[in-house]
């Protein structure tokens, strides 16, 4: 039993029982080991959940970074959609991610993305706030979507109100964020470079 095996089984357990029911006791039983054996890899449940959150984000965290040839508008939309798709892969994916902290690699990737937006002509502060807004908007949208999914047929809706098309609603909100960001991209604005303070800011988590 290695760390990768433990994480894979933990994520499968998450899909089966949901975040609230995940425990080291259940995970040990699933792996066919005694509970203390898990402490070779994770000292407590908090550390396990943090590792699960990082592993669950792999599809988005390993996606290609933007290049100077990319259109920043297209990239901004694709990057946010990638984040949403990744959160939706796992049951309670948004809740799992919302409680996590970015690692060094995450911060490096966020720094690269911010530098790309600034080099594309966006003001540094606006680029940072757009990444923050899109990340929080995506997490909130997926939280609502996964909460409704968990309720299933027990969810009560007002009479005459049709089911929510979550993807269409998400796209509409994302378009509004992009439209607002475009208002802060005046022609002729000299590109700058993100400061070290912004590269270390946790507000870029999930972007």
UniProtKB/TrEMBL annotation:
Q: Where is the composition biased (Basic and acidic residues)?
A: 198-207
What InterPro entries has UniProt attached to this entry?
DNA-bd_HTH_TetR-type_CS (IPR023772), Homeodomain-like_sf (IPR009057), HTH-type_TetR-like_transc_reg (IPR050109), HTH_TetR (IPR001647), Repressor_TetR_C (IPR004111), Tet_transcr_reg_TetR (IPR003012), Tet_transcr_reg_TetR-rel_C_sf (IPR036271)
Please give the residue ranges the record annotates as the region Disordered. 181-207
- Keyword Protein biosynthesis present in the record's keywords: the answer is no
Domain HTH tetR-type: where? 1-60
Which PROSITE patterns does the UniProt record give? HTH_TETR_1, HTH_TETR_2
Key words of the record: DNA-binding, Repressor, Transcription, Transcription regulation
Domain of life, per UniProt, equals: Bacteria
Task: Name the DNA-binding stretches.
Answer: 23-42
Q: How is this protein named in the record?
A: TetR family transcriptional regulator
């Amino acid at each position: 039993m290695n760390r990768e095996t433990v994480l894979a089984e933990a994520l499968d357990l998450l899909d089966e029982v949901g975040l609230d029911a995940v425990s080291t006791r259940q995970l040990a039983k699933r792996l066919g080991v005694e509970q203390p054996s898990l402490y070779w890899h994770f000292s407590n449940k908090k550390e396990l959940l943090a590792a699960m959150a990082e592993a669950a984000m792999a599809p988005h965290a390993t996606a290609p970074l933007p290049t100077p040839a990319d259109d920043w508008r297209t990239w901004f939309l694709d990057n946010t959609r990638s984040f949403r798709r990744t959160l939706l892969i796992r049951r309670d994916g948004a809740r799992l991610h919302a409680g996590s902290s970015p690692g060094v690699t995450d911060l490096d990737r966020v720094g690269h993305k911010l530098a790309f937006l600034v080099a594309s002509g966006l003001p540094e502060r606006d680029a940072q706030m757009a990444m923050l807004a899109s990340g929080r908007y995506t997490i909130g949208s997926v939280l609502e979507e996964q909460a409704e999914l968990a309720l299933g047929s027990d969810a009560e809706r007002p009479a005459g109100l049709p089911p929510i098309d979550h993807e269409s609603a998400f796209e509409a909100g994302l378009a509004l964020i992009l439209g607002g960001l475009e208002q802060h991209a005046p022609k002729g604005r000299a590109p700058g470079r993100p400061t070290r303070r912004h590269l270390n800011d946790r507000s870029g988590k999930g972007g």
